[in-house]
Specification:
With 214 residues, the chain is α/β, with parallel strands linked by helices. It folds into two domains: 1-41, no CATH class; 43-213, Rossmann fold (3-Layer(aba) Sandwich), CATH 3.40.50.300. 36% of the residues lie in helices and 18% in strands. The protein has helices at 55-65, 88-103, 118-122, 142-151, 161-176, 195-213; strands spanning 16-19, 25-29, 36-40, 44-49, 70-73, 110-113, 133-139, 186-189. Helix 1 packs across helix 6 and helix 4 packs antiparallel against helix 5.
Length: 214
Amino acid sequence: MFNVCPTCGMYEVEREVLADADPVFATAICGSCGARIRFRRRPLYVVTGASGTGKTAICHELTRRQPGFLVLESDILWGAIDVSDGAGLDRYWNAWLRMVRNIHQGPQSVILCGTQVPETLERQPERRYVGETHYLALVADPEEQARRLRARPAWRESGDPAFIKEHVRFNRWLIDHAGAGTPSWDLLDTTDLTVSGTADAVLAWISACHSKSG
């Protein structure tokens, strides 16, 4: 599914999208010629969390396991998209959804790992082309989180007290608001989990999401 209509060649992002009898598909309506463009609308699994809760490690572990999903770390586009103005983060996450939407035309859903708040993805124009989004926040005991951040290599600059304080605060926020967010997100406490154990738990969460969706 591309932004260019295959019938009239017009470029559009904000097309009307109609649900399909098959939940894996949907149809976009070209605003210029009315052409109906059927596309795959696979679910997206987002693993978020503050620094020090295990996102990067779990991304590497899941990639190594090749679990039948395409596992992507959201930081790989950082620096490639201008985020310097007030709309920069929206451009960044909208670009990610455009990438996800195109990947979903193939055989795999995406697991996207990176720090974000779910409502940021949900408000983007490209969101309409992605199926149901499921959010899992990795969280940890604040003392363990701070220990992990201080243990990182110096070049990552994660041991700065202000950096630690900010990410401990965000970790707490994710815990406190998990049931109240729109959309809401599930929690996975990684305090006492190994990387392998965390990967097992993430894959079990994805399986449970799939079962709930029917």
